[in-house]
């Protein structure tokens, strides 16, 4: 971030937008932010909740389809309400300033720090399993000690991410670029070596796993919701192109096309990666690990793989945490500039040119979440409010279909698409509450707290049309 606070890549001296992102840049944005810790850390949880490889693959395909459905709704919103800003822009247009405040409030206290916390815990688990034997970690006598050790490493990751971001955004971005190679390398390694193992080394594993793919399947609303939430976390990031749509060349064409290509690519990539897991590891081995990459590496490459895979995965998750931390500062800065946070946080370091107070605010909240929650609770705490606001944006789409039918829509989805997406959102929220009542209810309560805060501390617009001119804020 430069010292020119609030100036985006799409702004030049004359105030005219510069369409600097190509279709390839847009695809890279979505794929780069979607592929993070999920595919490496949630495969075991999904398998455990559904009981069979076939059902697990269905969950991966279903959550990918659900993400695609939401992304296509966002494609219509992004071409109908052009410019950068994403959710905040659509909520301001369709539901008013209070919803914008609730979105920003939730982003600051849950969504952004929750993302960093989840990625930090995933990094910690891989780092710990790289140096400690799995049998020792699974020993119940040491369970409490290693649980707290994982939390401690995760908090250390949060601190390092915060420190790196607050010292230099430029170098933080460079580190992200280098670490992106780790996630690409890890997925490529799993897919290619899994195919080689199944064809030339031992085909019995994949035959056992996929010979009767749905054998042992279990179904329960709570288990199904938990599996869906883990899958949806892995696909998080499909909304990111809308956030920078103002910088996208020919957005009327490239926005929906970029969404279609990137979502299809990621769904295929995730399914192939899971097939790689099932080609090498028995079903029970996948169920009983939170770091499937390590087991995979040990099985295929021996001790070398047991070291290489966690390094690649940890670099992937750490890089994603850096990316999330860098973008979170915009929310805090703009919230402080518009009176939604104390002006204390509207400060850019004259030495480093970074929003250091914004970064450390998010870092502290991330550490707090790591300390008092486990990985599964973090997933639920993050996913529940995220899909509330996804649903709210789709409600805006439907409302504008009724109230502004003549509004130009370069890309238009079938009416059934947003309706089915809303039904899925409601069903997901209800079942999530049933599956993890404590975590979800606390998350929902945190969102609701924003309502009295809005009326107490944020002056409602008094000028007609002011709601739609509020500064726009973004999240992941």
TrEMBL record:
Transmembrane segments: 20-43, 55-77, 97-122, 143-164, 184-206, 255-280, 300-322, 379-400, 412-431, 437-457
Signal sequence annotation: none
Presence of the UniProt keyword Transmembrane in the record: yes
GO cellular component: membrane
Major site of localization recorded for this protein: membrane
Keyword DNA damage: no
Keyword field: Membrane, Transmembrane, Transmembrane helix
Molecular function GO terms recorded: L-amino acid transmembrane transporter activity
Localization of this protein: Membrane
Protein name: Amino acid transporter
UniProt organism field: Paramicrosporidium saccamoebae
């Amino acid at each position: 971030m430069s010292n020119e606070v609030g100036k985006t890549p799409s702004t030049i001296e004359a105030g005219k937008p510069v369409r600097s992102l190509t279709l390839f840049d847009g695809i890279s944005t979505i794929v780069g932010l979607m592929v993070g810790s999920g595919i490496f850390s949630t495969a075991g949880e999904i398998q455990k909740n559904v009981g069979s490889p076939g059902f697990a693959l269905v969950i991966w395909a279903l959550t990918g389809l659900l993400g695609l459905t939401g992304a296509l709704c966002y494609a219509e919103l992004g071409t109908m309400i052009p410019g950068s800003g994403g959710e905040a822009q659509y909520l301001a247009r369709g539901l008013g300033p209070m919803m914008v405040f609730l979105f920003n409030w939730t982003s600051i206290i849950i969504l952004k720090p929750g993302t960093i916390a989840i990625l930090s815990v995933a990094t910690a688990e891989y780092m710990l399993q790289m140096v400690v034997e799995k049998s020792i970690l699974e020993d119940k006598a040491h369970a409490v000690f290693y649980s707290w050790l994982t939390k401690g490493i995760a908090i250390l990751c949060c601190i390092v991410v915060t420190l790196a971001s607050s010292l230099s955004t430029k170098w933080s971005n460079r580190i992200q670029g280098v670490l992106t190679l780790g996630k690409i390398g890890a997925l490529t390694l799993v897919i290619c070596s899994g195919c080689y193992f199944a064809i030339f080394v031992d085909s019995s594993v994949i035959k056992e796993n996929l010979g009767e793919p749905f054998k042992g399947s279990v179904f329960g609303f709570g288990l199904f919701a938990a599996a869906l939430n883990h899958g949806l976390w892995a696909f998080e990031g499909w909304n990111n192109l809308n956030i920078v749509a103002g910088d996208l060349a020919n957005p009327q064409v490239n926005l929906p096309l970029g969404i279609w290509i990137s979502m299809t690519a990621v769904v295929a990539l995730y399914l192939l990666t899971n097939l790689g897991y099932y080609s090498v590891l028995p079903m029970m081995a996948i169920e009983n690990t939170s770091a499937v990459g390590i087991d995979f590496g040990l099985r295929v490459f021996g001790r070398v793989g047991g070291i290489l895979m966690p390094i690649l995965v940890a670099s992937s998750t750490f890089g994603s945490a850096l990316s999330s931390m860098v973008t979170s500062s915009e929310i805090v800065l703009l919230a402080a500039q518009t009176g939604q946070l104390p002006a204390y946080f509207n400060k850019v370091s004259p030495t480093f040119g970074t929003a250091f107070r914004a970064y450390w605010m998010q870092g502290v909240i991330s550490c707090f979440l790591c300390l008092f929650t486990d990985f599964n609770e973090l997933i639920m705490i993050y996913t529940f409010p995220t899909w509330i606001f996804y649903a709210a944006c789709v409600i805006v789409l439907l409302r504008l279909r009724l109230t502004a039918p003549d509004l130009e829509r370069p890309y238009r989805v079938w009416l059934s698409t947003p309706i089915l997406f809303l039904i899925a959102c409601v069903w997901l929220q209800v079942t999530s509450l049933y599956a993890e009542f404590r975590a979800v209810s606390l998350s929902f309560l945190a969102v609701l707290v924003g309502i009295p805060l809005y009326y107490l501390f944020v002056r409602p617009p008094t000028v007609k049309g002011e709601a739609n001119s509020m500064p726009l804020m973004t999240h992941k």
